[in-house]
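Re: the request from the purification team.
They wanted to know what the chain is likely to look like in 3D before they choose a buffer screen. I agreed to run a prediction and write the result into the notebook, where they can find it.
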Amino acid sequence: MSATLATTVDRAEPALPRRPFRLTPWQTWGAILIAPYLLVFLFFVVYPVGYGLWLARHPSSYVHLAADPIFAGTVVNTLIFLIVGINVKMAIALFLSGFFTYERWWIRFLAVLFILPWAVPSIPTILSVRFMLNPEWGIVNQTIFSLTAEDGPNWLNDPRLGLTLAIAVHIWKSLPFWTLILLAGRLSISSDLYEAASVDGATGWQKFRHVTWPSMQTLYVTCTILSMIWTLGDFNSVYLLTGGGPADLTHVLATLGIRYLRLDQVDLSMAAVVCAMPFVLPLVYVLMRRLSK
């Protein structure tokens, strides 16, 4: 037995040397083309995020942030901004997506005007709203005075009105985008399902409940989660309209960091951004799970 094993080992072929790793021409060109993107991503995304987390590494920053009386109100404003803004926005978008499915020439013309708030940059559109709401020479108060002979309210100097108007501007600015997404979802539903429902005598509400909503439920939930992520990072609607005022009472987490930057408190600014992570990371995880199915 031992002799047989020895003979077998002697006859075993020697191991071939490993070939050095070499890229094919296609792989080489792929690496060359992807290198600029990786450099830009590392320089403009990974480095700023990592540097911000490094600045916010001290526990004392979060202690000082929690001790700031503005912080608690900012968290409440952020929750109100998210809950009210997202639910109202997505509900209106779902309704308008059904409205724009009707084939009328005036609806197509209206759809072009409807897209303009989303297509135009945020700075001129939101600043124009701010000028319109000026209590002294804004067109809104001038119209109120011409109709009632009374002065209009000081819109942006009332914290409740200011936050409400910021939510309204956010809805007005982003509503066309989500309406288009949901409209595309409605148009992908087979017309045969609606024809079969009509033959069965279904009403408009029954068609929506048993045909439209089951077909669009996944899309609607995914859009809602994605909208929550984007809304957390939306500082234009608040910062350009109210600047966080009056008396820093309309700040959200996205604008609170800018306030600390203006005060040269970079560590608190980064800490305020990190405080938004508990809101963002679960949403990102749920969104990735839904998209991977």
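For the purification team: The chain has a mean pLDDT of 84.
Please add any questions underneath this entry.
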